[in-house]
Amino acid sequence: MPERRPTRSLPETLRTLRALRTPADPGFWRSPVRGARFTAVLGVVLLVGLTLLFVTGLLSYAAYNPDLNPVNDKTPGKGWLGFYLFSWPTGPHWLYRLTQGLHVTVGIVLVPVLLAKLWSVIPRLFALPPARSVGHALERLSLLLLIGGALFQFVTGLLNIQLDYLFPGSFYTLHFYGAWVFLAGFVTHTVLKTPQAVRVLRQGIPRGEGGTRRGESGTPRGESGPPRRGTDTLAAPDPLPATLSRRGALAMVGAGSLLLLITSAGRSFDGPLRRIALLTPRGGTDPGPGPNAFQVNKTASAVRITPADTGENWRLTVRGPAGELRFSRAELLAMEQHSAELPIACVEGWSTSDQRWRGVRLADLAALAGYPDRPPGVFVESLQRGGSFRKAALRDNQVRDGRSLLALEVNGAPLSPDHGYPARIIVPAAPGVLNTKWVETLTFGEL
Questions:
Q1: Which controlled-vocabulary keywords does the entry list (predicted)?
Q2: 237 in a structural domain
Q3: What is the dihedral of CA 34, 40, 42, 45, to 10 degrees?
Q4: By residue range, what is the domain housing residue 133?
């Protein structure tokens, strides 16, 4: 007959349940790596990196020309959220290549730092009570906004880079709003925590009340309750044996960021660096042979452009005070041709080196349309039947720049179908999607 196990009494069961640690119990978190100094170092790196991300992100929205015409970027709220918008310059010609390349590269490189930072402070997300004071409540709220905003921005940004954006809704609108939510938490948390982080980095963890040494937990072993003031509230009160030092953990985070830098940054350069950019699109061998062998952001087939659309019957329509004018490709080639060496730089962060474009100046076409002296902005329409940015608006300063062309050739050869044959826009320092391909109509002046 099997031996019968004794049944636990209710008091014993309750004592057992009370003995079980939950995430709200500081003793639940036992990694010896966590600590205020470890978190402070990561915080300083993020302070610099996230500030750069936010600034370059706002510059990207300004470059998309949201204050001239609603057909370009879907940036919402041209009102108070668009207070910073300004006329994006055309020089230096590599400006957008630099700012957006930095935005995307820094965002990718910061992923290990962000994850390590979130891991280092996760015990605080479960700390009870939720708010001990008004200041503590503000800190917890800023932490939620910071973590939620950062995760949302990084996830949507990485999806846009790697998968041409599969997130539901408009990437531009969601990313824009998400940036401001993140900024609210970022600024609040920075104001509250920067003095403490600087103090910890300069002086270490001060000796707490009751003799707790630097680097130890704020709650001595065997005690419960809120941590003592002036002690390391992130360190585990009952840590497991160390298998990795905090310096080693920081080195691992840095190595991860360095690996991401090496395998992603090259998409903005030619040669070997582009070939080792294995983790980002457009990082492999340049597409195709010959003068048109450089990256494209969308192919003719992807937007349903057929040979019939771009054949002998194609005509460019130019509208303005002079009426509606129509030109064949041969007639455009017969006009005075100009050259400009300009790159293509895309919002996903990849770019080409300078390509040698040749075609008709937009300012010359504006003169034919009835604006011989001071050309206005132009509304550009493409033949493409699918995809975003079928229509785009360029500012007057972009039209007036002598390097802004309706390009017909590149690198001494006619444009390929994927590069916009029979004619495309090329403008210095503009995002790639504003360099409209397969141009059908140019409308100068007010719509």
A1: Membrane, Transmembrane, Transmembrane helix
A2: yes
A3: -170
A4: 26-262
330, burial (CB in 10 Å: exposed 0-12, middle 13-18, buried 19+): exposed
Q: Domain for residue 331, yes or no?
A: yes
Residue 94: strand, helix, or coil: coil
Residues 243 and 321 in one domain: no
Q: Where are the beta strands (DSSP E) in 38-197?
A: none
Strand-strand pairing, 391-394 and 378-382? antiparallel
Is the same domain home to 200 and 309? no
Cα dihedral 114→117→122→127 (10° resolution): -120
Q: Which pTM value belongs to this model?
A: 0.83
Specify if 406 maps to a domain. yes
CB-based contacts of 349, cutoff 8 Å, min separation 6:
100, 101, 103, 104, 105, 161, 267, 268, 280
Q: CA–CA separation, 110 vs 53, rounded Å? A: 10
Q: Are residues 79 and 202 in the same domain?
A: yes
Element (H, E) at 201: helix 171-203
The CATH number of whichever domain residue 425 belongs to comes to 3.90.420.10
Phi, then psi, of 414 in degrees rounded to 5: -60, 150
Condensed to tens digits (0 to 9), the pLDDT of residues 102-143 reads 999 999 999 999 999 999 988 888 878 878 888 778 777 877
Q: Answer whether residue 71 is part of any domain.
A: yes
